[in-house]
Amino acid sequence: MEGFIVTLVIIVAAILFLILFFTFVPLGLWISARASGVHIGIFQLVGMRIRKVVPARIVSPLIKATKAGLEVSINKLEAHYLAGGNVDRVVNALIAAQRAGIPLDFEKSCAIDLAGRDVLNAVQMSVNPKVIETPVIAAVAMDGIELRAKARVTVRANIDRLVGGAGEETIIARIGEGIVTTVGSSSSHKAVLENPDLISRTVLNKGLDAGTAFEILSIDIADVDVGRNVGAQLQIDQAEADKRIAQALAEERRAMAVAQEQENLAAVQGMRARVIEAEAEVPKAIATAFREGKLGVMDYYNMQNVISDTEMRNAISRGTAPAQRNVGEQETE
Q: How far apart are the first and last CA of the chain?
C-alpha cells in the first residue's frame, strides 16, 4: 500500500514537472523554428522567458525573414523588442522593401519604427504614392476678387527623411501658402481662372517638400471658384469710415459754431445792458445840467429836434416812415 502511494506521488510530481516545463519552455515554437530552417536553441528561448521577452514575438518574424532570404540577427530583433519597437512590422517592411527594390536596411527601419512612424506604411507609400487633398484655400488677387481653390497633392514617402522629417500637415500648410502667394501676385483673377496650372508650376518650383518626410510628385488644382469682391467691400468699408469721420468733424464744427454764437449773443446782450444802463443815466445828466445852468431850454429843444430827425431818417431807410412830431407835441405828451 505504501509503495502504491509513493508511486502515485512520483507520477503526479512528474506530470506537474512536465506541465511546468512545457509552460516555461516553448517547445512547439522551437520545433516550428527548426522546421523552418531557423537555427535557434531551446536554451535561447528559455533565456527570452527569463528576460521577459515573448518568444513568439521574436521567432515568428525571424521565420518570415528567413523564408524571405533576409539575414537578421536574433539578438538585434530582441534588442529592438526590448527598446519598445514592433519587430513584426519592421520585418514586414524589410520584406516589402526587398520585393520593391527599395534600399532599406535593418538599422534604418528600426530607427524609423522607434521614431513613431509606420515603417511598413512608408514603404508601401514609396511604392504606391498617396494623394493628399487640401481644404478649400481662399486667396485674393490684385484686382480684389477672392478665389477659393482646392488642390490634390500626390506625394511619395522619402525613406531617408522619415526620421526628423515633417508630416502631412506641413505639406498642406505649404501648399496653402503657395496658392495664396500665386493668386495674390496675379494682376487679375481671370488670369488664374484661365491658367490654373500657373498655381501648380509656382508651387512646385518653390520646393515645398524640403525638410519633410515626403516627395511631392505633382500638384493638381481640383477646383477654383470665384468668391467675394473683397476689394469692393474694402472700398465700401473705407467710404463708410470716411463718412463717419466727416460726420464727426461736421458735428464738431457745428458744436463750435453754436458755442461761438452763444458767446457772441452773450456779448451782444452784455453790450445792450451797458447801453440801457448808459441811457438810463442820460435823463439824470440832463437834469443835473439844468440845475447847474449848463443846459438851456433852447439847447434842449434843438437836441430833441436832432433826435427826431435822426429817428425819421432811420424809419425812412427801413421803409416805415412814421408821422413826424415836433418838439411841441413831444413836450405836450
A: 173
The owner of cell 516627395 is: 215
Strand bridging mode 214-229 / 130-133: unpaired
Q: For residues 212 and 167, is the Cβ–Cβ distance under 8 A?
A: yes
Chain segment 178-227, per-residue pLDDT in tens: 888 888 877 777 777 777 777 777 777 777 777 777 888 888 887 777 87
Cell numbers given for 134: 487640401
Cell numbers representing residue 92 in the block: 514586414
Nearest C-alpha neighbor of 322 from the set 11, 56, 314: 314
pLDDT at 331 over 50: no
Q: In the chain, where does DSSP find H-type helix?
A: 2-24, 27-35, 42-50, 55-67, 74-82, 87-100, 106-114, 119-127, 168-184, 189-194, 197-205, 230-292, 297-318, 327-332
Which three cell numbers, joined as nine digits, stand for 242?
470716411
Give the angle 268-273-278 at the CA atoms, nearest 5°: 125
Count of C-beta atoms within a 10 Å radius of residue 91: 24
What is the DSSP annotation of 16-53?
A: HHHHHHHHHS-HHHHHHHHHTT----HHHHHHHHHTT-
For residues 164 and 140, is the Cβ–Cβ distance under 8 A?
Answer: no
Cell, residue 261 = 454764437
Question: Which three three-digit cell numbers place residue 130?
Answer: 498617396
